[in-house]
Amino acid sequence: MAKKKxxxxxxxxxxxxxxxxxxxxxRGQITIPAAARKTFDILPGDKILVFGDIHKGIGLVKxxxxxEIALDMFHVLKSDDNNEGGKD
Length: 88
Prior knowledge:
By secondary structure, this protein is an alpha+beta fold. It folds into 2 domains: 1-39, no CATH class; 46-88. It has helices spanning 34-39, 63-82; strands at 10-11, 17-18, 48-53, 57-62. 0% of the residues are buried.
């Protein structure tokens, strides 16, 4: 049986989701839609990092997710260091 699409989400390809539009408040704040918070397990008090590219726009990443990516990257680099000295 096919999975039911959660309310408030539009799929654009396999990994791309659209959660709707939000309005920027007077203090520059936005509310992350509930469906997005649920999908990405965003809870009150979580740190969200804000990245930007002049041509591509703004991106948000949970701090713990970026730490996970960085640890994976350092693990790969450490493995590469262990293979130096002609022991491939």
